Structure prediction request, 277 residues.
Amino acid sequence: MFRDFQARNILVKDEQVYFIDYQGGRKGAIQYDMASLLWQAKAKIPNDKKLELLNFYIDEISKSSEIDRDNFEKEFWYYLYIRILQTLGAYGNRGLIEKKRHFIESIPFAIENLKELHETHPILSNYKELDRVISEVVKCKQKFEPVKYDQLTINVMSFGYKNGTAAASEFSDVVPQHNPGRYEEYKKLTGRDKPVIDFFKEHGDIDVFIENIKAVISPTIETYIRRGFTSLMICFGCTGGQHRSVYSAEHIAQYIHEKYGVKVILKHRELGIEEEL
Prediction:
């Protein structure tokens, strides 16, 4: 059993097939590899093609091994449940916990696979709690699908590197600026509080940085408006996502709102704040 048998681990060179990344090769059920390959989250293989390839796989196995075809097919759907749940667990850990956006983007595809399987092969009658949990997971798909906007919406976000980075179309790093978080009197405050704002005015050159950012992002915003794009994200990161990045995101969000009149969503990830300007 390969255990991670999917398209990106299969290479073809000079008409020869090569397999890479044996992260967990081991003795195991031969159904599992087909579940991994044919139901991989983003592949979107049509259902009729999945079944055609599954039958081809069984035919090929039968040439070299004695298998009970009916039993193989019956067990296959249980292994498919296991595989899809395993991928969702991985996506949740790498995406939601480790903050790696690539994995978060795969979640709705895996949930769609689970939903389809649950509808076409409702075989978990002996596993009441598992069946209930899967039903609840299927309902969560919409939470992970990317938001679609009818008009240009610019998301401005602050975050802390210690909790993972953020994917964005425009990305700015404010770490080099003087950090008030190093001083005891500012540790419980944020970049929205007046003492911290006064600190930046007195001690730092962060306002020069912000003016430079305005010059960088303005042409991009104008291009997005002219070409009818609907979504842009601008992120500011600092160590804790509490002072410098919050201050910068606040000023840039207000600047965009006042100059361009587009919808601006301001989010401070580490503060749990999200608001529309």
In short: The CA atoms of residues 2 and 22 lie 6 Å apart. The radius of gyration is 25 Å. The chain has a mean pLDDT of 88. The first strand starts at residue 10 and ends at 13.
